[in-house]
Amino acid sequence: MASLTLLEQRKLFTDPLQAGVVELFARTSPVLQYLPFQNVAGNAYQFNREETLPGVAFRDYNQPYDESTGVVQREVEVLKVFGGLSQYDRALVKTQGNLNDLRAVHDSMKAKAAALDFTKNFFNGDASADPRAFDGLETRLTGVQVLDASAGPLQLEQIDELIDQVVGGPDVLFMSRDMRRYVNALRRDASQAIETVSGVFGQQIDAYAGIPIGIIEQDATGAPILTDDIYAVRFGAGEYCGGLQAGPLEVIDQGLSGIYYTTLIEWICSFALFHPKAAARLSDIQI
Known about the structure:
Blueprint (H helix, E strand, L loop, with lengths): L5 H5 L5 H13 L1 H5 L2 E3 L4 E9 L18 E8 L1 E10 H7 L2 H26 L12 H4 L5 E3 L7 H9 L7 E4 L1 H13 L5 E4 L5 E5 L2 E5 L14 E4 L7 E5 L4 E8 L2 E14 L5 E5 L4
Parallel strand pairs: 1-11, 5-14, 6-9
Antiparallel strand pairs: 2-3, 4-13, 6-10, 7-8, 8-9, 10-14, 11-13, 12-13
């Protein structure tokens, strides 16, 4: 399978249960609407990340070029096992109705919770605190890719600076709903028109400088995922920010085991920043 987003992968599935869960993942998570995944063999992926370009120069006739070699950083990304079991008591089937209807309800709830958990870890994951999880952008981004906005109230110029910190410009700006409202208020105060673009499902969503705004809401426990940060991300498997998977997200009907009908939702996955400027973070925003 080539590098595909979840929605693109969904078109290749023949199992309606798997296709439905995969689409629900994408509908629940703005990150998973854009993040492309490439298949990798094994439980880890090694790649070289460009750090410093080699030098070039003019030379005199009959004189050699000065030798100059670029710097690359060898990176290893470990895939993590992610998912859960969707279970429902056989007695509920006997007393409340159709098995397929109950499965749809419980599997949808599990899929939504899983998609929200992936989203939370994409931003806030910390493998040093939970070795079972992967590191998120907050942990991965350092140095000039983190812009401090704590000195005073947010200014539109700071968002422009964030955008410029991503090579080639970001594909999406991720922020909370409250932050989106505040940014829109700043734009109205500056007599700027509020822009909209078409989302991946054809709906109209807010944009800033033509860049879609992905609204990151609460996780499965009701806790906010983003509060005082804005992230700018450029996506591209093998080039910028890309997902890694040991095969597609699996949805397996395990039938009746004991007193439960069980569906396994499991994904061996992670993501990588293939370019040092594939993403940037505007942190500690004051509003």
